[in-house]
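Title: Comparing notes on inverse folding

I've been comparing how different people in this forum approach sequence design from structure. To keep things fair, I'm posting one structure and asking everyone to reply with a full sequence. Here's the target:
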C-alpha cells in the first residue's frame, strides 16, 4: 500500500500526460496533468483505445503492431486531441509493462507538450526568412546602384577627350561591374553569404572579353576551374585581382592582331585556393 501510494504520488506530480493501458491499448489510468491537457474526465476515458487521443490514431508509428511489441518507442511531434481547446503538439514515448513471467502486460504512454517550443521555432523561422529577404534585397539594390555607376562611367567614356582618359574610365567601369557581378551572384543564390566563384569567373571573363576583344580578335580565353566557394569578403578582392590581371593581358601581352591565349586556372589544395592567370 505504501509503495502504491508512493507511485501514485509520483504519477500525479508529473507535468506531462501519462496514460497506462492494457495489452490491447485500452486506457486504464490517466494522471491529472493528462486530464487537464485533454480537457476530459478520467471516467470518460477508461476502457477507450489510447489511439483515440492522437490525431494520427492507429496510423502513428507508436502503435505499429508490425514492430516488436516489447520495444520502447519515441515519436516526435504528434498531435494530441485536446477536447474543446486547440490541439497540442507533443513528443510521445511508449514504455512496455511486463508481468512476472516477462510477458507484455500493458503500456505506459507519456506525452510532453511542445506547443510553445514549436511556436518559438516558427517565430525564429519567420524572423530568419525576413532577414534573408532583407539581405537579398540589399544585395540586389547594391548591384543596381553599382550598375547605375557603371552606366554613368560608360556615358563619360563616350565624351572622353582622349584615348588615355577613355581607357582609364573603361578600366574603372569594369572594376565596378566586377563588384556588381558579385552582388548579383549572391542575390541569385539561396545562401546569401557565399558565391560559387568558378561560375562567377566565367561570367566576369565574358564581360571583360566583350569589352576589350573585337570580333576579329585572335586572342582566346581558356579556363581550368575547380569548384570553389568563397564568401563576399574573399570574392570581391579576388574578382578585382582577376579583373586587373586579365585586362593587363588584353592590353599589353599581345601586339595588335597577334594570336594568343589567356588561361585562367583555379585549383584547390586543402583549405588553400590558387588562382593563376597566364598569357
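Reply #1:
Here's my take.
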Amino acid at each position: 500500500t505504501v509503495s502504491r501510494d508512493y507511485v501514485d504520488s509520483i504519477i500525479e506530480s508529473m507535468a506531462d500526460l501519462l496514460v497506462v493501458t492494457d495489452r490491447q491499448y485500452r486506457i486504464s489510468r490517466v494522471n491529472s496533468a493528462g486530464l487537464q491537457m485533454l480537457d476530459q474526465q478520467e471516467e470518460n476515458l477508461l476502457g477507450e483505445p489510447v489511439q483515440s487521443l492522437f490525431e494520427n490514431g492507429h496510423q502513428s508509428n507508436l502503435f505499429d503492431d508490425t514492430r516488436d511489441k516489447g520495444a520502447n518507442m519515441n515519436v516526435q511531434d504528434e498531435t494530441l486531441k485536446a477536447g474543446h481547446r486547440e490541439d497540442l503538439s507533443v513528443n510521445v514515448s511508449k514504455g512496455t509493462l511486463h508481468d512476472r513471467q516477462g510477458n507484455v502486460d500493458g503500456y505506459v504512454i507519456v506525452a510532453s507538450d511542445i506547443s510553445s517550443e514549436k511556436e518559438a521555432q516558427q517565430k525564429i523561422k519567420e524572423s530568419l526568412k525576413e532577414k534573408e529577404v532583407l539581405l537579398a534585397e540589399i544585395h540586389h539594390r547594391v548591384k543596381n546602384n553599382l550598375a547605375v555607376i557603371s552606366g554613368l562611367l560608360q556615358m563619360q567614356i563616350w565624351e572622353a577627350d582622349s584615348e588615355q582618359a577613355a581607357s582609364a574610365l573603361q578600366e574603372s567601369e569594369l572594376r565596378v561591374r566586377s563588384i556588381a557581378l558579385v552582388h548579383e551572384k549572391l542575390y541569385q543564390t539561396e545562401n546569401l553569404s557565399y558565391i560559387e566563384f568558378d561560375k562567377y569567373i566565367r561570367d566576369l571573363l565574358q564581360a571583360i572579353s566583350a569589352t576589350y576583344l573585337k570580333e576579329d580578335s585572335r586572342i582566346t580565353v581558356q579556363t581550368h576551374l575547380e569548384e570553389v566557394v568563397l564568401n563576399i569578403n574573399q570574392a570581391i578582392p579576388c574578382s578585382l585581382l582577376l579583373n586587373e590581371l586579365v585586362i593587363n593581358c588584353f592590353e599589353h601581352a599581345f601586339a595588335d592582331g597577334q594570336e594568343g591565349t589567356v588561361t585562367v586556372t583555379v585549383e584547390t589544395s586543402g583549405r588553400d585556393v590558387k588562382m593563376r592567370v597566364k598569357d
